[in-house]
Design goal:
Helices cover 42% and strands 17% of the residues. The chain is α/β, with parallel strands linked by helices.
């Protein structure tokens, strides 16, 4: 039985709750039936209800704020039993103007047994709510004649210019023959004489000119009462024969004291008089626990603004609490575990399954690195299985490779292949192989399948970070900056943290992984090179190749690179064009490699008149590469997308000093002034380093000898031995985890 950490279960449960609630909000916005111009229907109902009547009553509520716990569950039943004819919201019926809030309040108001009208208040206006209010209910300011009374609703949010509203109001009241007039404006006109919970100056009617003009109109036309909301209390004042009533207790946030409590106002009207009655929500306070109950009611009202918001808030707080618990109380050891002994796994052959998105006969740094590791491991008695795409030119017999047919092939020569990872036979073959460890060479597609297989088999997964994905944005059908700045880094971080260990070729690459948040153990291990193969090239082989290429006694520059944007080949061509004008010493520049940019680069060479100087050699068989390297005098490189730059080590193994653009992967291999030069991406500086090696043969020879000595430590045999030590260390860590888990599972429970 698998035992899960309870905090982790709780964390994912909360994530699920939050996801479901967000989905429910989206459902309310997108799929619930629409409703429009509700006020038209409600006004008709009220007018029909009060036709030829001089006596009636209505309830005024303020700050409903989408409250389910207070308004829907408690106050609506009170209103339904209060004998009123209709209900008016004085403002803030919603907690914000978002679509889901309008839909929620419409559902809440449907529980009323009588018609209702809403005043356009501050919350109705927020979050672009004015557009929704207009569509769902009606205009921001309007008037209604019902029975012997006129009801006037104003916009206090500044959405509508106040001068236009007061002009309109005077014209309406000049023609008004009603016995009573009631005014509804979302913001209070009068400041309360009591302390108000969290009130601010903008909670009251602004600007001052609007307030003064309204008070003048109220005095001139003898308006019976002016109702408002927007403050969390009940306040009743009488001035100029008019009642100014602020009611903010229909829901939302109250403190439950003498001035801030849940309530509504009942207004009774007859032929001559208007009376208002405060109807509080009785909560049965006990005198002894009055303060405690007030505090609880405050918390209750704070969270109980609808079930959805309540659960969202509690879930979010729970997630925060779990995260804080993990940060503060869960012990962490950021140092490597030095008590791991790989020896038991070094003395026996291992079975290693490798997953890669490209492999030979595709020529590239990753396939060559994998092939060298495979050969080195097999030479020392280990067994490997490479899971890779199928190619037309692949060898007929290769028992150590599981070829996967492609779903899609991309590139001019269909060199990039999307293997069919959904084939069940892949997993069957790997299970039958019975690997001790899985080695992944890409953080997606076949790499993801390999990680899945490793987890299912409960064996370690090791990932080698070969490629800076952000420099390959031009291959991805997404906005380049989005892929470079976010997706590529997030993809690598997420994948690497799911692996048991990450192999990186250089210290600068390890630093990058730590900066993006990779926590898995990392091992620095450069890819090996066939050092002895470069030493075995004869002078006769070099001369034969020189003759085949039509070369004379000129100095030869070599570069090995795929002809693609991320390899920065245009930079090298421009620098060579500049060098041609600066030196009289003859030279030739051979660029070895293929790619989708070949035709464009050739046109650029032709345009600059470099046909006799720069040659795009094309693809060269791997077995012939050592001879091409030995043909050269200087190796040139400008790519900034490398994690190691394996071709640089190969060039050094052939005795070539290197001139490269400084970048990750290059910085740790090229030692400036020792085995080559590395410069910023500055054409003139890069060109001048080449010129200095051309002009000074003694300097070139010294750097050549140093490069040869430097490359000697990177043989394939040593590479395979070092990687096996990494495998052994990871297997030791896995075994230690399994022992600890087993001991914890079998630990007896404590007894009294």
């Amino acid at each position: 039985m698998i035992r899960r950490h309870p905090l982790k279960v709780l964390f994912y449960l909360n994530v699920l709750i939050v996801t479901l609630l967000i989905g429910y909000k989206a459902y309310l916005n997108l799929f619930e039936p629409s409703f429009k111009a509700i006020h038209t229907e409600q006004v008709n109902r009220i007018q029909n209800l009060l036709e030829d009547r001089d006596t009636f009553s209505f309830a005024v509520v303020g700050n409903i704020n989408n409250s389910v716990g207070i308004f829907e569950r408690k106050i609506i039943p009170m209103i339904n039993n209060a004998g009123v004819d209709f209900v008016v919201s004085a403002g803030n019926a919603v907690s914000s103007g978002s679509e889901d809030k309008y839909r929620a309040v419409q559902g809440t108001l449907s529980y009323l047994a009588m018609p209702y009208l809403l005043t356009f208040g501050q919350h109705e206006y927020e979050s672009f709510g004015s557009f929704r209010f207009y569509e769902h209910f009606g205009p921001y300011f309007f008037t209604m004649q019902a029975g012997n009374s006129r009801f006037v609703f104003l916009d206090s949010t500044s959405k509508t210019p106040w001068r236009w509203q007061t002009r309109w109001l005077r014209e309406i009241l000049d023609q008004n023959g009603s016995a009573h007039t009631f005014l509804f404006v979302g913001h209070p006109l009068m400041r309360s004489g009591e302390d108000v919970l969290f009130d601010e100056d903008e909670d009251y009617l602004h600007p001052p000119g609007f307030r003064d003009e309204l008070i003048t109109i109220i005095r001139e036309y003898n308006i019976d009462a002016a109702f408002s909301a927007n403050i969390s209390q009940y306040d009743r004042q009488q001035h100029y024969g008019t009642e100014f009533i602020a009611t903010g207790g229909a829901g939302g946030l109250v403190l439950n004291n003498e001035v801030s409590f849940h309530h509504f106002v009942k207004v009774s009207v007859d032929a001559d008089t208007v009376t208002s009655e405060l109807v509080p929500l009785e909560i049965g306070q006990h005198p002894v626990f009055k303060r405690l109950e007030s505090l609880w009611f405050f918390i209750y009202s704070l969270f109980y603004v609808g079930y959805i918001n309540f659960i969202l808030i509690v879930s979010a707080l729970t997630l925060i609490a779990i995260k804080l618990y993990a940060i503060v109380f869960v012990g962490k050891d950021y140092y490597p575990d030095y008590d791991l002994d790989p020896t038991p796994w070094l003395d026996k052959p291992l079975r290693v399954a490798m997953f890669t998105n490209n492999y030979l006969p595709f020529i590239g740094g990753v396939p060559i690195s994998i092939e060298r590791l495979r050969r080195g491991l097999q030479a020392s008695g280990n067994t490997t299985l490479v899971v890779a795409p199928r190619y037309k030119e692949q060898p007929e017999k290769e028992d150590y490779v599981l070829r996967v047919p492609s779903l899609l092939a991309m590139g001019e020569k269909r060199e990039f292949r999307l293997a069919n990872i959904f084939l069940g036979r892949i997993r069957k073959r790997v299970r039958a192989f019975k690997p001790d460890i899985v080695h992944l060479h890409h953080p997606f597609w076949l790499g993801s399948l390999g990680l899945f297989v490793a987890h299912r088999l409960r064996i370690p997964a090791v990932y080698t970070y070969h490629t800076r994905l952000e420099h390959y944005a031009h291959f991805v059908p997404l906005p380049g900056t989005l892929f470079r700045n976010l997706i590529s880094h997030a993809l690598i971080k997420r994948f690497a943290n799911k692996c048991d260990a990450v192999i990186v070729p250089t210290y600068s690459t390890e630093e990058y992984l730590r900066m993006i948040g990779v926590k898995s153990p990392t091992f620095i291990q450069p890819t090996g090179i066939e050092y002895e193969r470069f030493q075995s090239v004869t002078e006769g082989e070099v001369n034969t190749l020189r003759s085949e290429l039509g070369l004379g006694d000129e100095r030869i520059f070599i570069s090995v690179s795929r002809l693609s944007n991320e390899k920065n080949i245009d930079f090298m061509i421009d620098a060579i064009a500049s060098l041609k004008t600066k030196t009289r010493m003859p030279f030739r520049f051979l660029i070895i490699g293929e790619g989708h940019q070949r035709d464009r680069l050739q046109r650029r060479i032709d345009t600059l008149g470099l046909q006799e100087v720069v040659t795009l050699v094309g693809s060269v068989p791997p077995d012939d590469m050592a001879t091409y390297y030995r043909l050269g005098d200087i190796f040139l490189f400008a790519s900034k997308s490398e994690t190691q730059g394996m071709v640089i080590l190969e060039a050094m193994a052939a005795g070539l000093p290197v001139v490269a653009v400084r970048s990750s992967g290059i910085d740790d291999v090229v030692r400036h002034g020792f085995n080559g030069y590395k410069t910023p991406e500055n054409r003139d500086q890069w060109r001048d380093c080449i010129a200095s090696l051309l002009a000074d043969e003694s300097l070139r020879k010294t750097l050549s000898d140093n490069a040869l000595a430097f490359a000697r430590d990177y043989s394939i045999e040593q590479f395979a031995r070092d990687v096996k030590v990494i495998y052994g260390t990871v297997l030791a860590a896995k075994a230690k985890q399994q022992r600890a888990a087993k001991a914890k599972k079998n630990k007896p429970l404590a007894t009294d």
